[in-house]
């Protein structure tokens, strides 16, 4: 079986760990722009490639459509159902479509802020999460030597932190951080951001670190213990085994859970509106305060924003996963065409790559 | 003093005493086969020899260097004593060449080009010159095990330990792996092999050791052990397997 060449897919977010983590707004915009342009080029190349595939390999497209007939039918039904409802509502006078379209531009600023918050906390949190994951992946045993007594409190701290974050609602964590910041330094500013923004950022950072830590722990523990043993047997130190064997394989195993965490982070950022951070939910709600009576349209518009961002990110990650796969690592995926990659493999698609 | 020897090795896991005072000697260039029932502690013994498991008591000497000295880096020990595992344990995210190169580059700090040369040489030596870019999941069991042997050979060890290298293979692949090992024995590589392949033990090894319940019960040349076993337990074992 020949290994397909990796196409020019955009790099997954985890590849940008070396990017700036200090929160400077000025550096995010070009970075996002670079990522966006690579993404755009990839997507623009997708169109002609897809058309070429439909033209020269019609059976692949037909097969992809057939295999996914059930889910596609349901999707078509629900989309047309939703569209029908909105059209009827528009005709009757309840729903105002031009209003939605008119207000999209004013949401782009808050959307950018939400994306910034999400992405930065995600990347910065990843660093701490890898550390926490490492600690949690190797619980100290009863036979630990006396010189390693520090292992116990470290493990206790890591476990306690993760349990606290995962066991409490984000709103509660946000309140704690917010009041801590407000009562100690109410007039704190940093790079043009006020205290409430900084508190929100900090709370979101702590939250995502906790959840990512568990994802990384799962990744580290899923790597075959025999390989770490073999790494030691060849003469690598424990740190080298972790960096050269465990971590590379974990990053691939952990891509999907991290993508889920990014999406979850993005939705959790909504809660920051509670402390006055102007992100998309705040904007949508104040939009109705300014023009009362249009609650439905405002929140439908908000839903559109969320859907477009989240579904795009999901699809990109899925596509990248399939391109960057390594045979034998994670789910084996057979040689497939573009239409199958976009639509999915259907029920009978899972087969071994050998 | 022989090339690799151990005196009085003891190891317990909790209340289970796995090694109960093991003395073993391997001469330079000798192929030693360790046979015995499952669960007797053979794998633990091998792993103690390259310090993957720290013995509770006893000493291990490699060429008059006391390996159990706490001042000695275990990483250095493992560069001198290679190991081949029952379940191959190849690094699944790296292709064949990189698998073999990894130890050379990062443990021995060899340059990339020299490491690659050595890796290609060893892969050709085990007969996998046409699979340099393949990933482990694309190889058959016998090929994977041969890559594992090449990986051990690339470190130029003084001794290679084999832990049931063919137990996870189908009959055809067993032959190709045993052929490589026989060739190594012929080239006078010092090796200790835990195996259930009695044919290999009889034909290829210079010394055979019968291991049971944490102790060496008998040791000697292949014909001593297989044809004239001295102890009752050894005779019972031979009766069962050499039907």
Q: Report the C-alpha radius of gyration of chain B, rounded.
A: 18 Å
The helix/strand series of chain A, from N terminus to C terminus, equals HHHHHHHHHHHHH
Largest interface: A-B, 27 and 29 residues
Task: Report the end-to-end length of chain B measured between terminal Cα atoms.
Answer: 38 Å
Give the spatial strand order of the biggest sheet of chain B: 6-7-8-3-9-10
Instruction: Kindly report the oligomeric state of this protein.
Output: heterodimer
Helical content of chain B, roughly? 25-40%
Structural class of chain B: alpha/beta
Strand content of chain B: 15-25%
Strand count of chain B: 10
Q: How many helical stretches of chain B?
A: 9
What about the largest sheet of chain A?
A: none
Secondary structure category of chain A:
mainly alpha
Using only C-alpha atoms, the radius of gyration of chain A works out to 24 Å
Low-confidence stretches of chain B: none
Total beta-strand segments of chain A: 0
Shape of chain B: globular
**What is the string of SSEs of chain B from the N terminus onward?**
EEEHEEHEHHHEHEHEEHH
Percent of residues in β-strands of chain A: under 5%
Task: Let me know the average pLDDT of chain B.
Answer: 91
